[in-house]
Every structure is written in C-alpha cells, then in structure tokens.
Amino acid sequence: MKIFDSDKKKGEVTLKTENLNDLWTLYNVISKDDHITARTNRRVIIKEGTQGTRKQMRLTLKVENVAFHEFSNRLRIKGTIIEGPDDLVSFGTYHTFNIEPGQKIKIVKDQWLKNELSRLKKSSKFESNFVMIIIAIETGLATISLITNFSHKHISTIKKNIPGKRYEQSHRNKAYKEFFSDVKRVLEENLKNIEVNLILICGPGNTRDLFIKYLKDTGAPSYLSKIKNIHASSGTESAILESLKSKELTELKEKVKIIQETERIQELFKLLSTDDELIRIGLEEISISAEKGSIKELFLADTLIRGTSKDFKLKIENVINDVEYAGGEIHILNSEQPTGRQIIDLGSIIAILRYKE
Predict the structure, then answer these.
(1) How does strand 279-281 pair with strand 227-231?
(2) Structure pTM?
(3) Res 318 pLDDT > 60
(4) How far apart are CA 66 and CA 333, in angstroms?
(5) Which band of pLDDT confidence, cut at 50, 70 and 90, is reported for residue 35?
(6) Domain final residue pick, 121, 145, 161
(7) CA 32 to chain centre
(8) Pick from 198, 229, 252: which residue ends a domain?
(9) Nearest residue to 57 via CA among 76, 70, 69, 44
(10) Helix 257-274 and helix 338-345: axis angle, to 10°?
(11) How much is the pLDDT for 26?
C-alpha cells in the first residue's frame, strides 16, 4: 500500500492499493460514516426514456457498509453520495465503489486510531493470496474445503456406502469408483473458477492413495503436480484443521497466514490447559494487565475492530497501545478462519502474560 498524503488535523489519508492484502486491510479499517473519495463510473440519464450512458467521475461517499470479495479482487464500498458533479448526480442517492488493486482513494475519519494508521503503513509479508483446496478422505466419506489467507469455506461433504470386504471385490471397486468420481467432479468444478496453489489430500489408511491413483488413471489431469498427500485421522472437517497443524506444511508457513495462526493458537490452548495463570481473558482483565506491561501476546478477533462502536474501539485501541508500548505482539485474527472463530468462542480477546501477576 502506498500512502501519498496523511493529514491528521483533517482526518484525511490518501493512498493507493497495490494488492489483495491492501483491500483486506481497508476492509478492517474503513468504518460506517467514514467519507471515501474515489474515481468511479456511474450511469447517467441525460434524456428521459433512454438507458443513459456510463460516465467517469470523482465522487465522495458517506459509508454505509463494506464487503470484501477476494476472488474478484475487489472491495465494495456502499454509501450515499455527498460530493460530486452537481449536474450529473443527486446528493443523498446510493452508489457503490468497486475498489481494486492499483486504485487511488482518500479516506476521511472523524478520528483515526493509532492501530488503524499502523495497519495502513505496515507492509504485509502476505502480498499475494495463497489458495488451497483440502480434501479429507476416508472410506465412503470426503470433506472438501477451500482455504485462503482471508477465508475458510466448506465446499462439500460427500458420502457413499462402500460394501465391506465380505462382498465381491467388483462391487467394492464399483462403489469406490463412483465415490471417487463424485469427489473429482466437485474438485474440478472449483478448479474451473479458482487458481489454486495447493491441493492437499489427507486422511487415514490408503483411501487417499487410491483416490490419487484414480485421478492418474482417469486422464492424468494437469493439477496432479499441485497435490500433496499427508496423513490425517478422518475424512471430516476436523481432519482439515488437523492437517493445518502438520509438520508437512511447515515449509508453507511464510506464505500461508492460517498455518502461522494455527501454530500460535496451539501454543495458546496448551497454556490454557497446563498453566492458565499465564492467560487473561476478556477486555476488563486484559486492560489491567496491559497497563502493567505484562502482556507478551494479545489475540483478538477482527470483529472487535470492525463494525463496533467508536467508544469500544477506543478501549481496544488503548489496550493495543499499551501492549505495543511494552513490546508485546499483536495478533488480529480473521473471523472467517477457524483460528478466529476459536478466539471468538473465548470471548474475542485473550492474552498470554510474560509472567504470573
């Protein structure tokens, strides 16, 4: 993200987005009632009874809501028009900006929080998205999920009755082929629309090996080179979460945010079960420890800093400032990911202390 101008007195920041991560950052920084200025296209009807024409213009919107669309590489900002060419727009009407990488915008807030400015200025090491399809598979059961640096989406659960070993092998083979065909179909339907970096196939026993062999035997698809095969305990969603903790994926840690977050959450839950005196949960407890400078790591769900009241945001801001001043680490976790949902289940904010207070 390139920042061209920042005027704290006016509450203005002018910047240019450079990648998908910048759009994700803005999604968490832009709030309701902020003013956003950008160049855009809007349909203008000059003559009654015609469809009108699309004209490029510069508009300022008062924000009502913001939506992040990672697979179309855009941030959608909807609001009412408060500034623009008088002869072409009606003030107070709705418009939506589709902000893409490479676009310049101006953001005006009543008050910029320190952590918001910090997030804009901080360059992310996750400059591009990393997209994985994970298939957890066992005999007669497959769970397929799509995981990126910004989301975790369950695609499908596929079930098929596979006859036991006492049945004729031909019946078992036929059932396996039908099962594998269903899994392959769902996989390839998703690969049509999404550029995937990795296809992870995990599960117990040899079912995952049989599935990979089936893929090779039915046309040797081009995506075979993207497949990684690792052990997991089942063909369920829990096996997908289990695979994200595996040593086999350690090499991807620098590219995949969810793998880093999973590692830190594991450490957090380990302390919860073995030495919970080093854990603080809830804003009240954490605020006290933050003032003392005793917080080593702070974990909070992104929902706490997005879409909440200004007063509550200020409380969170004070905690973040105290933790950073004392040299602590801040982890803002995506609520669309399992790690973020785990933090939400614990009250949305939790901390690890340096020492027992």
Answers:
(1) unpaired
(2) 0.82
(3) yes
(4) 18
(5) very high
(6) 121
(7) 20
(8) 252
(9) 44
(10) 30
(11) 94
CATH assignment at residue 170: 3.30.420.60
What is the number of structural domains in the chain? 3
pLDDT, tens digit, 9 for 90 and up, residues 59-74: 999 999 999 998 888 9
CB 57 within 8 A of CB 89: yes
Structural domain containing residue 213: 132-252
What is the pLDDT averaged over residues 232-242? 94
Q: Name residue, tokens 């550029």.
A: 195
- The pair phi, psi for residue 268, each rounded to 5°, is -60, -50
SS3 string, the chain, reads: CEEEEEECCCCEEEEECCCHHHHHHHHHHCCCCCEEEEEEEEEECCCCCCCCEEEEEEEEEEEEEEEEEHHHCEEEEEEEEEECCCCCCCCCCEEEEEECCCCEEEEECCCCCHHHHHHHHCCCCCCCCCCEEEEEEECCEEEEEEECCCCEEEEEEEECCCCCCCCCHHHHHHHHHHHHHHHHHHHHHHHHHCCCCEEEEEECCCHHHHHHHHHHHCCCCHHHHHEEEEECCCCCHHHHHHHCCCHHHHHHCCCCHHHHHHHHHHHHHHHHHHCHHHEEECHHHHHHHHHHCCEEEEEEEHHHCCCCCHHHHHHHHHHHHHHHHCCCEEEEECCCCHHHHHHHHCCCEEEEECCCC
Average the pLDDT over 21-32 and give the result: 91
In residues, how long is the chain? 357
Tokens of 96: 């939506």
CATH of residue 97's domain is: 2.30.30.870
Q: Which residues contact 274 (CB under 8 A, 6 or more apart)?
A: none
CA 139 to mean position of chain CA atoms: 31
Place of tokens 């969170």: 316
Question: What rounded mean pLDDT belongs to the chain?
Answer: 90
Task: Give the number of C-alpha atoms closer than 13 A to the C-alpha of residue 173, restricted to the C-beta side.
Answer: 3
Q: How far apart are CA 235 and CA 239, in angstroms?
A: 6
Q: Helix 20-29 crosses helix 114-121 at what angle (to 10 degrees)?
A: 170
Pairing of strands 198-203, 227-231: parallel
The pLDDT tens digits of the residues spanning 325-343 come to 999 999 989 888 889 999 9
